[in-house]
Design brief:
Layout (H helix, E strand, L loop, with lengths): L11 E2 L2 E2 L10 E4 L5 E4 L7 E9 L5 E5 L5 E7 L4 E6 L8 E8 L4 E5 L9 E4 L13 E5 L2 H4 L9 E9 L2
Antiparallel strand pairs: 1-2, 3-4, 5-6, 5-13, 7-8, 8-12, 9-10, 9-13, 11-12
Length: 170
């Protein structure tokens, strides 16, 4: 009975040429399509996110934007109606999802809103060609982000906030 079989030089089995050395931890075996196998580090999973915090006054008006990430810029165009213009940098495609975490002050919890439905009266992307795909950076997305739309709530005389998060696949 053979306990071990060692090949000290390159191994070729059929059309496949195996590497002569071991890869490093986390690497995978890849082919060049011509029969030569080697080790490579797999690409990181795609995707990124942008977010900002929307702060509300006690009367429900937007008071400020804070804690925004590097590639998102937010401008409040109508604080009373809750309208904000959002501009993204370094993204070729529009977000593939928008998740809102509205803070309910009375219960000290976040209300998660994952769908923008008909109650969100304003949700547009401005500019350029008939499609936003392939050249999304610099486009303006306009959203109406009232406390009702975001699930945010507060007791009498208290402000609240909501986190708005955009997920990108690019």
């Amino acid at each position: 009975m053979v306990d071990e079989f060692v090949i000290k030089k390159g191994l070729i089995v059929g059309p496949l040429t195996y590497p002569n050395t071991d890869g490093t931890s986390g690497q995978v075996v890849v082919t060049d399509g011509s029969g030569t196998l080697s080790f490579a580090t797999p690409a990181a999973a795609g995707g990124s996110e942008e977010r900002f915090k929307l702060n509300y006054l006690a009367n429900g008006d937007i008071s400020s934007i804070s804690d925004d990430t590097a590639d998102v810029s937010v401008s409040v165009t109508d604080a009373v109606a809750g309208v904000a213009e959002i501009t993204f940098a370094n993204h070729d495609f529009p977000p593939n999802s928008i998740i809102v975490y509205g803070y309910a002050e009375a219960t000290d919890e976040y209300v998660i809103v994952t769908t923008i439905d008909a109650t969100w009266t304003n949700r547009t992307i401005a500019g350029g060609s008939a499609t936003a795909f392939g050249a999304f950076s610099g486009k303006i997305m306009e959203l109406t982000l009232t406390r009702d739309n975001t699930g945010s709530s507060a007791g009498f005389g208290q402000g609240t906030h909501a986190w708005i998060m955009f997920s990108f696949g690019d």
